[in-house]
């Protein structure tokens, strides 16, 4: 029986409640939604980004082709360039399997080059079966200048390679680029259409960007401002605007290089294009994501606070203001209408974070009292850091707190009432990241059940976004993810479809209702109920086993079972839920998955589960 209160005394649901969180993780930007097809276009990859990188990563060269870092460079923020000797060539294999082109479509090529005298350069696009379009020619001459050409693909291929070949005169080249002309909304330096359209189809109320862990820390090593042109700078928005050839690339927290071709201007533009409120997050100068470091450099803090004020001017200031003028120069004289801004992400040191957050907030509110400055509750959904962070957020009258959690589907089912008891007079909640651990229909269903709890509490939970948003097949640091892609295709997970249902048919007001007489589940569940084993990337010693049933499992004497989810920590270890009786064809459970193993495996695991009630 369902009793519905027709008086309409439930919470009002804002149109902006459900949004998306974009982070450059899983190669979501370069090699993902950013439509550039050339990998390492500016020869800036370095071991600081990833120990396996060199400035020639992504390239094969023939003849005399040297990467140089000297005064002959393109500009001070673009350090390396490729010096091609007479007859030398450089071939780029794109991201993952190669450069994908579609028959009949046009691809815009450009490069910057410099030469003493006239240096003809032949540009060709081919795969193992031969040319993919007519070869092009540009002639570089004199100082650094940009040269352009266009290809029309006469075949479809996912394994294309782009070659630049010098003729009889040596030439220096940089920023070698190839874009499909058919980008999302046809924008230059634009986004991959299929991916952007999948995000748009969610009808997001907001777009949180650019992270995540990548905001505060430039690398896994932790907080490091870097000096000079060292890598590992935190994500600083000013590095990401202006002409792409002047955007200094940086190490990404997730272990690769980020070109910043998708930068703050493009993020704001994308938010506008999909009708979402932009919600940028700036570094708070306290590390999060497992690191414990806070800056004690007041000048640095001052600079970051000023950068944040400048960011607001970039987004909202008139075209005549210093930073508004930069936005206008890039093509958007009208303001972007920024109303919310996050400071920090998952800081482990709540007291240090709050001290710095308050300085950011005071400076922002003094100039822009209408901007909502969003704080956070640290990395966990409960525990000492979480409690302390919330205490500080409450004590300091914070307007909105960003919470993050990734839990089992069972947790989501059991915690539907999480926000029922939140203080109605305290800070509002921005559930900036959440997901149950899997991409099965069962996971999506658990999330849907949970979202009914978010909506019931829409007076407190003002914003919510599933995370992460995108994952490139074969370049995954974190899963599950909402939308998956390879070089030619993209597909939404079950979780994506569930999000889409909620996001495209969001109600205006909660109508309180109560169900009674719910039939009890009875009878034993026997046989295989399905487990998904999940080995994460080399970056994590984190292996989990998820019961797909989501029901309460009886404890048995399986070795690691202690009635709780266990996260594996050591090499070769793994975890079980609730000590469920697990039979494996493999005798030694510790050898099932080795930490650091990045592949998918199928195991013949059987679970015998009996509901407690049964
Ligand atoms: O969404 C993936 C990561 O999860 C985010 O970068 C971080 O904020 C959280 O720990």
From TrEMBL:
Transmembrane segments: none
Stretches assigned to coiled coil: none
Gene Ontology BP annotations: L-arabinose metabolic process
Taxonomic superkingdom: Bacteria
EC number of the protein: 3.2.1.55
Keyword Transmembrane: no
Top-tier EC class: hydrolase
Sequence segments annotated as region (Disordered): 49-70
Protein family membership: Belongs to the glycosyl hydrolase 51 family.
Name the record gives this protein: non-reducing end alpha-L-arabinofuranosidase
Species of the source: Streptomyces coryli
Lineage of source species: Bacteria, Bacillati, Actinomycetota, Actinomycetes, Kitasatosporales
Full-sequence range covered: 38 to 651 of 830
